[in-house]
Amino acid sequence: MNDIAIEGGLLWAGPHEHHRDALVYIRGGTVVYAGRAGGIAVPEGTPRVDATGCTVLPGLIDAHVHLTTNSDHDHVVAGDVFRGQVSRPGKLLHGLRNAHRALAAGFTSLRVMGHRDVGEIELRDFVECGLAVGPRLVVSPWWITMTNGHGDLFYPPYTPRQQWDTADGVEECRKIVRLQAREGADFIKVMASGGMSRGEQPHWPNYSVAELAAIVDEAHDLDLRVAAHALSIEGIRRSLEAGVDSIEHGSYLDQDTASEMARRGTFLVPTMAFNDWCQREGTARGLTAAGVEALRDAHDRTIESFELARRAGVRIVMGTDSSGTLCPFGAHARELELYVRYGMTTDEALATATVNAAALLDRPDLGVLREGGAGDAVVVAGDVLADIGVLGQVANIKHVVRSGRDLSDHLRATSDVLDIDGVRGVRQPS
């Protein structure tokens, strides 16, 4: 039936919507009531959760993850080795374990930057029809990249290229959007600037405005939104001119582009956690010392860009860039802690992982606990509004409810999440 009542505690239903001694009643997987206790009669026999002493949040959303990446923290390998040597079924099983870790941390929806032919579209559908337990997955099955662009150079030279691994020129760009839509894409990801791959520089723009505009036009015609990987200022400018829906990373944002993003309503997904992990523990997680140093400037500039965007009124959406051992699944709340450290209130930070993320996904039923909302909720021991760090301790995640179903016992029974030194938010095996 997917019915449940969550009783007591502090309810954060959305920005500035806080209720103490609250009640959340979910029936048939949909929120029927969320507010002060006594506002509705809960039928006899409904499963009940006692949230006394806890904070009740909507299911959280991480809007930038790389799901099918290494989940084995006892065997750290370089990313290109994992991509080149692990089979497709193996990558998908790593992805399922990563998905369980995210769910156990209270993240009931993930926006997935997919890898070609691995099976994330199929996993999304298996979860939705009940064949697998996991968070809701919103998937781009593959990126769009130009020859010698970030997505092309992301793979080492010895990796065989397939048709449509790259697209050059307006017509090829249009066709690859159509191909991804046919595969079942929920959104389109395009590489609009360089990154940190071997043989490239982050300040390099990728694609002309005409090529980016063709991608956006074709995607929007098919009701798909476009996420642009864009670190460099020129990559960001071209992406905005083309009309993309979100800028991913945005490390070298300046005041003018921040103001333009705010004017256009373009979302920013800053992915600060990835850079933070790399600077703190990169050499223990598969990076060389030179690789850590190469990322330092982007790390520092991302902090500055975040402040520029926040002050300009840009809509910021939480995304970690969770990626294997470099930025571990299960520690997603670290991103929110960084937002608070660098100027947001806790209320504002929570909004980035709920209502703001839901707006980016065009899913107003997500990220809220109010009548008609999706029945996703997280019960966290302690007062998250007083200390955002409470959320990062997965031992504090007492209940995870997905579409009205309490998955906590299932996650405790099946999770083999590893204990990682220094990782706040990773569950010991039970």
Could you explain how this protein is built, in words?
α9 packs antiparallel against α10. The protein has 14 helices and 20 strands. β14, α8 and β15 form a beta-alpha-beta unit. It has 2 domains: 103 residues, Urease, subunit C, domain 1; 302 residues, Metal-dependent hydrolases (TIM Barrel), CATH 3.20.20. With 430 residues, the chain is an alpha/beta fold. The strands form 4 sheets. A 6-stranded mixed sheet has the order 3-2-7-18-19-20, with helices on one face. The chain has a 6-stranded parallel sheet with strand order 11-12-13-14-15-16, sandwiched between helices. A 4-stranded mixed sheet has the order 5-4-1-6, with no helix packed on it. The longest helix has 24 residues.
Keywords:
TIM Barrel, 20 strands, Imidazolonepropionase, alpha/beta, hydrolase activity, acting on carbon-nitrogen (but not peptide) bonds, disordered C terminus, Urease, subunit C, domain 1
Please compute the radius of gyration using only Cα atoms.
21 Å
- The number of helical elements comes to 14
Q: Main β-sheet: number of strands, strand sense, barrel status?
A: 6 strands, mixed
Q: Tell me the strand order in the biggest sheet.
A: 3-2-7-18-19-20
Pfam families: Amidohydro_1 (PF01979)
Protein name: Imidazolonepropionase
GO molecular function: hydrolase activity, acting on carbon-nitrogen (but not peptide) bonds
InterPro entries: Amidohydro-rel (IPR006680), Metal-dep_hydrolase_composite (IPR011059), Metal_Hydrolase (IPR032466), Metallo-dep_Hydrolase (IPR051781), OTAase-like (IPR057744)
